[in-house]
Amino acid sequence: GDRVWYDINANSAQDLDEIGLNGVTVELIDGSGNVLRSAVTAGDGLYGFAGLLAGTYTVRVNTATLPAGAVQTYDLDGLATAHRATATVATAQNLTTVDFGYRGTGSLGDLLWLDLNANGFQDGSEPGLNGVSVELLQGSTVLAATTTSPAGLYGFTNLLAGTYSVRVVTSTLPPGLIATFDLDGIATPHIAALSLAAGQTRDDVDFGYTGTLQFGDRVWFDYDANGIQDTGEPGISGVTLELRNSSGTLLSTTVTGANGLYSFINLPPATYRVTIVAATLPAGSVATYDLDGVATPRTTLVVLEADQSRTDVDFGERGNASLGDRVWLDANTNTLQDVGETGLNGVTVQLLTTSGGLLGSVVTAGNGNYTFSNLLPGTYTVRVVSSTLPAGSTPTYDLDGLATAHTANAAVSAGQNRTDVDFGYNYPSSPGTGTLGYWKTHPQAWPVANITIGGRVYTRDQAIAILSTPSRGDKSIDMFHQLVAAKLNVLIGNNPSCISATIASADAWMVTRPPGSNIKASSSAWTQASPWHTQLDNYNNGLLCAPHRG
Residue 419: helix, strand or coil by DSSP? Predict the structure, then answer.
């Protein structure tokens, strides 16, 4: 005798981990077909017949006592005579090779997967877990083991009817995973018990796992294209991002929310690639930032270590549109930019989102001109900072009407260069400018008691005393004379648009050259100051943007 065993791999050999089939009746038959004895397998499928005379015998398995659906894989003299084997025993011989192997026709298995949303269901493109060891048990005995495929699939075949457990070898899982699903619940995680009928195939023995890590952050409108999320720069909503593993398999997608925020959650430690779906960005977008540089725009590798979550995986985008034009002095208040009407320089203009977030600001220059560039398609608010306008200015024109004074909404499309966002202003008739001689002899006309020149404060009397001092070729005294007169002319309400930049430059020049510094014609300081001095003199004489007092 010897053994009736469960040949689970159907290779006709008794492998070390293959168990015996207990409770099977085995009969000993003589040459005339008579049943001499019977035995029931026990202790690991063992059976035996002792005290035999020398001779030829047949050993027959009573198939009614086999597990249902059992298929024979081995006996001593081959399977042509199924379930029986004939053997000859010599005197005193102990023959222990009369074995019988059986397999089943059932199977079980299915999938180990990364349950990215931790809902216990295999959703969409949630990937399988590759390379995880899975064991098949009956009781505490391991019958077989296998490893999941790249798609996370596994299976056990040749199974007899019975009760089994499937166990995941946790040491082979990616670190940090926690169970979200198995067939009999995660109160006993990583192991599931089940019953299998004869010939049954069960493909529901799944195991779901989720990670505890996450990463993400924001896709934003990098208005100034500096790669930094500056205060006021808004997020870009509705942008789709894809998450892939290091092999390029798509794991998940997400869409940015109202402030451009996104995240991928429930991840195990690994290397990932996140990519923006470019078609979901605003038209005309140009990449300005991602984590590993814009040489490979809108895609970046992200490494998650154990116990690490990251909030630095940002993407910056600018646009290729622009808007702006001019802030001008609408002298005849006809809302048209007539020939000869000057721009207002030094006026601050702000660009805002329609919800009021400040994107940037510029100061008009040249001829009252301004521009905002790098714009994504959309509607913006342009606002003139009224405190930077000449005193007494009143609006005469903006793009969407004066009901919202100093403010205009303007929409741009991808690549559009919009140059019609103008602002017209008028202010009361100019009181006229006075020369240095006027201000020297009319102290009662001074609008202030003190005046600051080159960072130094002078009383009216001190300033008049210097105005009365001949320059004798000292440019620092000449500059003081003209700068005092120009500042006073602006303070009484004359148009400063043509002279404000010159006043600022001259004032800065005098910080280190107060009156009496002996700046002569041969010096570089004289050469630097001469154009400003001439401009100040022309303004004070009513030759520029304000008339003379007469």
Answer: coil
DSSP 105: S
- 264: pLDDT confidence band, cut at 50, 70 and 90? very high
Note the pLDDT of residue 549. Answer: 83
Question: For the chain, how many helices (H) and strands (E)?
Answer: 5, 35
Contact in structure between 329 and 498 (CB atoms under 8 Å): no
Phi, psi angles (nearest 5°) of residue 504: -65, -40
pLDDT of residue 306: 86
Determine whether domain 213-318 maps to CATH 2.60.40.10. Answer: yes
Closest CA to 358 of 232, 259, 220: 232
- DSSP string of 113-171? EE-TT-SSS--TTPPB-TT-EEEEEETTEEEEEEE--TTSEEEEEEEPSEEEEEEE-GG
Token match 């942008």: residue?
A: 239
306/168: higher pLDDT: 168
* CATH number of the structural domain 106-210: 2.60.40.10
Alpha-carbon dihedral sign for residues 477, 479, 482, 488: negative
User: Two tokens at 134?
Assistant: 């899975």
For residue 244, give every residue at least 6 positions away whose Cβ sits within 8 Å of its Cβ, in sequence order, or none. 250, 251, 272, 273, 274, 275
Strands 417-418 and 423-426: unpaired
Contact 460, 451 (CB under 8 A): yes
CB 389 within 8 A of CB 330: no
Q: What is the pTM of this model?
A: 0.67
What span, in angstroms and rounded, lies between the C-alpha atoms of 139 and 210? Answer: 28
* pLDDT value at residue 494: 87
Pairing of strands 286-289, 270-276: unpaired
DSSP state of 376: P
The closest alpha carbon to 200, from 168, 235, 226, 161, belongs to 161
- The count of other CB atoms within 10 Å of the CB of residue 278 is 14
* pLDDT of 428 above 80: no
Task: Tell me the C-alpha distance between 234 and 257, whole Å.
Answer: 11
Q: What is the CATH number of domain 321-426?
A: 2.60.40.10
Distance between CA atoms of 494 and 474, rounded to whole angstroms? 28
Structural element, H or E, at residue 302: strand 299-304
pLDDT of residue 435: 96
CATH classification number, 4-103, choose in 1.10.10.10, 2.60.40.10, 1.10.1760.20, 2.40.128.20: 2.60.40.10
pLDDT averaged over every residue in the chain: 95
